[in-house]
Amino acid sequence: MTYQRPFKRTDRVSLQIQQILGEITIKHIDISHLGFITFTRVEISPDIRHSKVFYSVINNKMPEDTINKELNKLSKAYRKYLGQEIRMKYTPKIKFYQDEDIKHEEHMLEVMKDLNTGKS
């Protein structure tokens, strides 16, 4: 019998990267001027060389496009600190994307709320 781990390696690395990025934001890189940003999930390529970091913003202080550009400008700094924290042969390149799932969920909640108020 072989032992199977509960997650694939890419899943474990993704969770670790998400946690480390949160710590980097607290300790080293100040992004509070953009709003309250939360890293919602990380998708990593099978060769673990590239990662997509999805984020959500509460209390936007800038337009969404500007926030995305500013975060992607900081990707090298995040990668530098990530390389110091993670134990891997290669530090993955980071690209930030706004998480559209949260927006979709909020829209669906609004639609459901409108439907509920229309029925009563």
Describe this structure as you would to a colleague.
- It is a single chain.
- The chain has helices at residues 9-27, 64-73, 75-85, 100-119, and strands at 36-44, 50-58, 93-98.
- Helix content is 50%, strand content 20%.
- The protein has a single domain (9-119), classed as K homology (KH) domain (GMP Synthetase, Chain A, domain 3, 2-Layer Sandwich).
- With 120 residues, the chain is α+β, with helices and mostly antiparallel strands.
- The chain has a 3-stranded mixed beta sheet.
A few lines on this structure:
The chain is built from four helices and three strands.
Count of beta strands: 3
* Low-pLDDT stretches: none
Annotated CATH architecture:
2-Layer Sandwich
How far the N terminus sits from the C terminus, by CA atoms, comes to 59 Å
| Topology pattern, helix = H, strand = E | HEEHHEH
Identify the CATH class. Alpha Beta
Strand content: 15-25%
Rg (C-alpha, Å) = 18 Å
